[in-house]
Amino acid sequence: MEIQNTYDDEILNLLRIRNVKLTQALCIWGGIITVILSLILAFTTKDIIGLQILSISMMFFVIYFLLKKGKLLIGRLLLCYILPILVYFISIFTKRISIELGIYNPINFFDTRIILLTLIIVPFVSFNIREYKLMALGMLPILLGLVLFDPIHNLVGVGYYQSGLEANDYYFSSNLFILIAFIFIGASLMYTKFQVENSSILQFFKISKMENSLESITRVANSPSLSAGLIDDTLREIVAAISRITGANRVGIWEFDASLSTMYSIMQFENGKISYDKNELHRTDFPIYFKNITQNKIISADNAQEDLRLFELKEGYLTPKNIHSLFDSIYIRNNNVKGVICCESVGKEIKWNSDDLIFVNSMGELITSVYVSEKLNKEGEKLNSMNNELRYLNQKLEDRIKRRTEELKLKNQQLEEYAFVNSHIIRSPLTTIAGLLNIWNLEIRPEDRAYIISKLHESVNNMDKISFQIENAINQYGEFRRENLK
Q1: Which option is the CATH number for 224-352: 2.40.50.140, 3.40.1160.10, 3.30.450.40, 3.40.50.1580?
Q2: Angle formed by the axes of helices 72-101 and 108-118, nearest 10°
Q3: In the chain, what are the domain boundaries?
C-alpha cells in the first residue's frame, strides 16, 4: 500500500508539473498577444479600452511569475478567470463600436460565445483529471460567461436587440447551440484528457517497472552471495525480487532431473516467507505441461485455470491453492534445460507482459551464474589447497636441503678438523716413533738404546693420551675439534 501511495503521489506530481508548464506557455503567449492587441487598439481608437486590455495583459505575466514561485493553485485559477474577463472586455468594446458606427452584425453575438467555448481548453490544460474539483472551479467563469452572456450585454447596453438586431428565436437558438457545443466540447476534452493521462500513467508505471527491474537485476548481480557462489542466499534474493517486480504472490524454483522427466521443488517464496517443501512433478502425470514447458521454454497464462496447457494441474494444484495466473520460465545451465522459475498469482489475475518475461529470464541467467560461481569458487578452493600443499612441500624440501647442507658443512668441518688432528696432533708422536725406530736399527751404544726405549714409551703414552682426548670430545660434544682436545 505504501508503494502504491508513493506511485500515486509521483504520478500526480508529474502530471501537475506538465500542466504547470503548459499553463506557463499559455501565459507567455496570452501576454504577448494581448499586449499587441492593446497597442493596436491604443493607436487606432481614442477609447481607453487599449489601456484596459494592456492592464489585463499584465496579469498574464503576473500569473507566470506566480507559477514560477510555486503558487500553482492560485496561478492556474487566475488564468482560468482572467481569460473570460478579457474576452468580455473585447466583446463589449467591439459591440459598442459597432452600434456607434451603425453596423449590425449578428455574428458578433456568436463568435464571442465560440471564443468562450474554446477557453474550456484552459482548465483541462491547467489541471489533471484527479484535480477534477479544481478543474470544475476553473470552468465556472466560462460557464457563467456563457449563461450570463445576454444579461451582461443587456446590462451595459450592447445586447442583441439593443444593437438593432431582430430575431424571434435568438435566445432559444443561441443558448441551445451553446449548450450542445459546450456538452460536446467538454465531453471530447474530458475523453481526450482521460486518454492522455491514462497513457501517461501507464507509461510512468512501465518506466518505473523497468527501472525497478534493472535495479533489482543489478543488485542481485553485484550481491556478495552471488560472487561467493552461495546458492541458497542468492536464490532467496532472486525469488523476493521476482515477487516484488511481477506482483506474483508465490515464486518457486524447480529443477529437472537429467532426463527431464521429473521436477523437484528447490525453494518456495510466498507472501514474504521462504519454504523448502519437497514437492515433485512427474512427466507421466503431467505430460502436456512437461511438453509445453520444455519445448516452448515459457508458459504465460493470465487465466491459469482455463488455460488448456495447464488443465492437468487444475484439480490437484491450481484450484486448491486458488491460483488465478501463472507464469513459468525455464533457466539454462551448461547449455541444457535445468529448471523452471514458477510465478503464481493467488486470489487475483495478473496480465503478464513482455517486461515480466525479460525480467524473469534475466533472473534465470543469474541462477545459472550463481551455480557457475559456486563451481569456480570450489575450483578456486581446490587450487588454493593444492598451492598450499605445494608451498608446504617446497618449504619442507627447502628445510631438508638446508638441514642436509648444514650436515654437509658440519661434516666438512669435521673432516677439516680430522685432517688437522691427523696431520699435526696424531702424526707428531707417530713420526717420533718412526724416527726412533730408524735410529734403533743403526749401530748405537747400549746406553743410547735405553734412552730410545724411554722415548718410545713417552711417544706411545702421548698417542694413548691423544686417543683418550678424541674419544672424550666425541662423547661430550658429539664431535671433536682441536680446541676440545685438552
Answers
A1: 3.30.450.40
A2: 170
A3: 2-212, 224-352, 401-484
Compute the distance between CA of residue 32 and CA of residue 162 in angstroms, rounded to an integer: 34
pLDDT of residue 137: 92
Q: CB atoms < 10 A from the CB of 67, how many?
A: 21
- Average pLDDT for the chain: 81
Buried b (16+ CB within 10 A) or exposed e, 443-452: eeeeeeeeeb
Cβ-contact 359, 213 below 8 angstroms: yes
Site of grid cell 452584425 = 105
- Strand 250-256 and strand 280-282: the pairing is unpaired
Secondary structure letter of residue 270 according to DSSP: E
Look at residues 226, 258, 193 and name the one whose alpha carbon lies nearest to residue 375.
226
CA distances for 370 relative to 6, 53, 212, 244, 255, angstroms:
33, 73, 21, 21, 15
| φ, ψ for residue 283, nearest 5 deg | -60, -35
The DSSP output letter for 305 is G
- DSSP run (H or E) holding 349: none
Does residue 49 contact residue 89 with C-beta atoms inside 8 Å?
A: yes
Beta-carbon count within 10 A of 189 CB: 16
Q: Are 329 and 368 in contact (CB under 8 A)?
A: no
Q: What is the CA radius of gyration of the chain?
A: 53
Sign of CA dihedral 282, 287, 293, 294: positive
* Bridge partners of residue 341, in order along the sequence: 253, 329
Highest mean pLDDT among 3-7, 30-34, 102-106, 181-185: 181-185
pLDDT in tens, 57-93: 777 788 888 888 888 888 888 888 888 888 888 788 8
- How many whole angstroms separate alpha carbon 483 and alpha carbon 486? 7
Distance between CA atoms of residues 59 and 76, nearest Å? 12
Question: Of all helices (H) and strands (E), which one includes residue 304?
Answer: none
Task: Check pLDDT > 60 for residue 243.
Answer: yes
DSSP 266: E
| Contact assessment for residue 208 and residue 7, using Cβ atoms and an 8 Å cutoff | yes
Residues 41 and 89: their CA atoms lie apart, in Å, by 12
DSSP string, 456-484: HHHHHHHHHHHHHHHHHHHHHHSS--GGG
